[in-house]
Design goal:
Blueprint lengths: L1 E2 L5 E2 L9 E2 L4 E3 L6 H6 L7 E9 L4 E11 L4 E14 L6 E7 L3 E4 L4 H14 L5
Antiparallel strand pairs: 1-2, 3-5, 4-5, 5-6, 6-7, 7-8, 7-9
Length: about 130
């Protein structure tokens, strides 16, 4: 059995990842979280931070990294999507030049844990047209 992003255990042959999936999230220190995410939850006590990379299931393409702040006491989650884009080529080395972008932090009620929070956040990104 495996766990799908909704947190429900299903048999391997029944698992439906939907349009996106991610490997198990990992907990990170606040110092590793994006500055905008840390600011969005500043003042909250007991917040834990997590990260996971998101993959588009139909194309098997990397969509970005999700960072989540989970406040179990308040029953809230806050998430951002981090993406990296090639913006040019270094004239001296020929190496690509990257620019990092982050979505605005998005807070929402969620008392069901980090997997459910990531699932809800990804659905919000899909509805906003950020994800396919």
């Amino acid at each position: 059995m495996r766990e799908q992003p909704t947190g429900e255990a299903v048999k391997d042959d029944e698992w439906d990842p939907g349009s996106v999936m991610w490997p198990p999230e990992k907990e990170i220190e606040v110092s590793a979280a994006h500055e905008s995410l840390a600011k969005a939850v500043a003042g909250s006590r007991g917040v834990r931070f997590f990260t996971a990379y998101i993959i588009d299931v139909p194309s098997d393409c990397f969509l970005g990294d999700v960072q989540m702040a989970i406040d179990d006491v308040a029953g809230e989650a806050c998430g951002i999507l981090l993406t990296r884009h090639v913006t040019g080529v270094d004239a001296e080395t020929g190496d690509p030049v990257f620019a990092d972008e982050a979505t605005r932090p998005f807070k929402f009620p969620c008392a069901s844990g980090v997997e459910k929070a990531i699932s809800i956040f990804c659905e919000k990104l899909r509805l906003a047209g950020i994800f396919p």
